Amino acid sequence: MIGNDTNLTSIIPYFCPMNKTVRYILLTITCLSFFGIGYTMYNMYQQEQEWAYLSLFLLLFGWAAKLLTLGKWYGKSEDHWKLIGLGGLSGLFLSIGFPPIPFILTLFIGFIPILLIEDFFYKKEGIHKWQVFKYSFNAFLIWNILTTY
Fold it and tell me: CB-hemisphere CA count at 13 Å for 29?
């Protein structure tokens, strides 16, 4: 266990605060990217060209837009954006450990953010323990998207 406090700012020194303005700007960028990539993929399909890695970016931007749109669903905690960030960081580290970049040490490092999320909810009273699943689902979905392509 990390300590007795349940504040993530003692673990993570700084994350960009996710106020409405920042969230709407990021949501606009991700939605425009998502629809732009989708349109490009449709045009490539019409010309019978291969998509290469465009579907990877389509899935990542789609998931980011979903998180930015429905981010409040994850929880009422003031640290829920930090927990989502930890889940994303975990998914990134876990995916680096798989081919074509088999840096296996990052597999072990990738579980540290998930354990921090679990420790955060373990210390809270009156919070359902299934909250951990929501944030770890984010990690494993990002891991799945990045390792599939």
Answer: 8
| CA separation, residue 7 to residues 2, 13, 76, 79 (Å) | 11, 11, 14, 8
List, as one string, the DSSP characters of 76-123.
SSTTHHHHHHHHHHHHHHHHHTSTTS--THHHHHHHHHHHHHHHHHHH
Question: How far is residue 119's CA from residue 98's CA, in Å, rounded to a whole number?
Answer: 26
pLDDT in tens, 45-103: 999 898 888 888 888 888 888 888 877 676 666 777 888 888 889 998 988 888 777 78
pLDDT over threshold 90, residue 126: no
Cis amide linkage into residue 100, ω under 30° from 0:
yes
Contact 121, 131 (CB under 8 A): yes
User: pTM of the full predicted structure?
Assistant: 0.73
Half-sphere exposure of 120 (CA within 13 A, CB side): 28
